[in-house]
Design goal:
With 162 residues, this protein is of the alpha/beta class. It has six helices and seven strands, in the order E-E-H-E-H-H-H-H-E-H-E-E-E.
Length: 162
């Protein structure tokens, strides 16, 4: 397997992880501020960089409504936020990191209906001009993929388009 024409085994773990952003079904948030949770993958980012990513991820509305905005402390594992809000924060993280490869793992599975449309728009912005690896159980989720791999028991059993 190659990334950028270079064998994946020739990368250090750190340099490989610099090339990848991940948005998982279950978002992990730290007991820290909203801003620091977004900056997790890009600790040197400026506040302006965070604001730009937040707007692209459609998080600005609910962050501005929080008592301390970007400085609001996230409760234990993000208990104060809805599933859709947590997902959009995760997408803001990935937008801020701006890695060329995005892994999406059932990213809409735990999303409340009122956030689903905004989440889909944020995902479209995140994935523009990127290589996407999408893990999904529903075929309709990957209908626009260039290539779909069907995996059973750890083996590829089929491949093709929708």
């Amino acid at each position: 397997m190659c990334i950028g024409g270079k064998n994946i085994k020739s990368y250090t773990l750190e340099s490989l992880m610099d090339q990848i952003s991940m948005v998982f079904q279950n978002v992990y948030l730290f007991a820290d501020t909203i801003e620091n949770n977004i900056k997790f993958g890009s600790p040197d980012a400026t506040h302006e960089d965070v604001v730009r990513a937040v707007k692209e991820a459609a998080c600005d509305d609910f962050i501005e409504a929080l008592p301390d905005g970007y400085n609001t402390m996230v409760g234990e594992v993000g208990a104060n936020l809805s599933g859709g809000e947590k997902q959009r924060l995760s997408i803001a993280r990935a937008i801020l990191k701006n890695a060329p490869i995005i892994i999406l793992d059932e990213e809409t599975a735990n999303v409340d209906p009122e956030n689903e449309d905004r989440l889909q728009m944020a995902i479209e912005r995140l994935t523009k001009n990127k290589t996407i690896i999408m893990i999904a159980h529903r075929l309709k989720t990957v209908r626009n993929a260039d290539q779909i791999l069907v995996v059973e028991n750890g083996k590829i059993v089929d491949r093709g388009k929708h």
